[in-house]
Specification:
Length: 429
């Protein structure tokens, strides 16, 4: 065990759907459960009672994490990520298998975990430190660093029930990172912070591991995972789909998510329109390559379509680009029950690799709206054989601009006056 910070062997977790907790209950809960059970028996009279349904949130999970590693954990909602972290944090017990953890663990599983809402920020710093096993002297030595990192000095003696979610997150991360646990477990809690705070946290985690400590980092932000994580665990439907180098795992995840970049079911937009399908491309979508798309609308009543635009948004909901679907033939009259199908092609999709979401803006005769988060859009990296000088995604923003550069390899020495007299050149965008 000396060469591993975390070792997981044959780990499985089973839940029973529709089952009642058989542990401690209050008198009120016992009375309500008794009444509810009587009602269920009356309704089920003459029918076979439904059996409890077992559900395996995790099944046969195996992996090892060495000291000083930052391991990313990715997967869709419901894949078992949070369940795994709760087991590693000793919040819940596994059904099968074993977990070996070496060292003190600090967990940030949701905003405000381990905080008491009635206590002030100052008091919660000491409370969290005590939970982590720190002495009062050790906490006092780190106190100023924690407050400075969290940027809550003005509100330090305010009860944290009055803090915003961002202030909660800043203080919680600052306490967990600066009180020096051996293993730091983070579950998407950084998503509530602003961009500057997230960057500070990522830098802090990198510094954290340089001192030999270990980080498990769950996030839907693939860019952040690729930026700081050397290896990555991909969970799918409760099993390990892939575990290895972050670049390889992220590519596999993006490729599989690209197959799902479409609306799963009809979505009612307003009184007069329903979105039947919103679909971009098929297969793997690569940065800077072409992508086809299709939109299918159904008229719920007689109407007229004036505007239609596909919205492409980043992981924090920021608008990255739009696809304007208006044509010279607008507006389009639609009879009740009829469908409008729009197909098009983006010749060059200049988005860098990462996860995006698709939304829609429309304006019709009786309704109009911006609708976000209708489908996923996963963009993977173009093979480096075609882009040998490509920078990493975290250095490039969202858009990969295409341009031609002619380098000046050798020139004669000249004075400052001659430089000023040279014709101005530049990149036209």
């Amino acid at each position: 065990m000396t060469d591993c910070a975390i070792r997981v062997e044959g780990l499985s977790k089973e839940y029973v759907l529709d089952a009642r907790e058989k542990g401690y209950r209050t008198f009120r809960e016992a009375v309500l459960d008794s009444v509810a059970a009587s009602i269920r028996r009356l309704r089920a009279f003459g029918h076979e009672p439904p059996a409890d349904q077992p559900f395996w949130a995790l099944k046969d999970i195996n992996f090892e994490v060495k000291p000083g590693e930052i391991v990313g954990i990715i997967g869709r909602n419901g894949a078992g990520k949070s369940t795994l972290l709760k087991i590693l944090s000793r919040i819940t017990a596994p059904t099968e298998g074993r977990v070996e953890i070496r060292g003190r663990v600090a967990s940030l599983l949701e905003v405000g975990t381990g905080f008491h809402p009635e206590l002030t920020g100052r008091e919660n710093i000491y409370l969290n430190g005590a939970i982590l096993g720190m002495s009062r002297t050790e906490i006092a030595e780190k106190f100023d660093e924690i407050v400075d990192f969290a940027e809550v000095e003005k509100f330090l003696d305010t009860p944290i029930k009055r803090y915003s979610s961002g202030m909660y997150a800043r203080l919680a991360f600052a306490v967990a990172a600066h009180l020096e646990p051996d293993i730091l477990i983070i579950d998407e809690v950084l998503a509530v912070g602003d961009a500057q705070f997230q960057k500070k946290c990522l830098n802090q985690m990198s510094a954290f591991t340089r001192s030999g400590r270990t980080v498990l980092f769950v996030s839907h932000n693939i860019g952040a995972i690729k930026q700081i994580c050397g290896s990555c665990l991909y969970l799918k439907e409760g099993v390990v789909r892939m575990f290895g180098a972050t670049g390889d795992v992220a590519l596999q995840y993006s490729s599989e998510r690209a197959q799902q970049s479409q609306l799963n079911s009809a979505y009612k937009l307003g009184a007069d329109l329903e979105l039947v399908n919103l679909h971009i491309a098929t297969g793997n979508i690569e940065s800077a390559n072409s992508a086809s798309f299709e939109i299918v609308l159904r008229a719920l009543e007689e109407t007229e379509l004036f505007d239609l635009t596909v919205l492409i948004e980043g992981p924090a909901g920021e608008r990255v680009a739009i696809i304007d679907c208006r044509t010279p033939s607008y507006p389009h009259p639609l009879d009740a029950g009829s469908c409008f199908v729009f197909r098009g092609n983006v010749e060059t999709l200049p988005l860098v690799e990462g996860q995006y979401s698709l939304g829609l803006f429309y304006r019709a005769r009786h309704s109009s709206a911006y609708v976000q988060g209708l489908a996923d859009l996963m963009v993977s990296e173009t093979p480096r054989t075609t882009r040998p000088l490509c920078y990493a995604a975290e250095h490039r923003g969202f858009i990969a601009l295409q341009c031609s550069i002619e380098p000046v390899k050798k020139f004669a020495p000249f004075t400052y006056d001659k430089i000023c007299s040279l014709p101005r050149t530049g990149l036209e965008i």
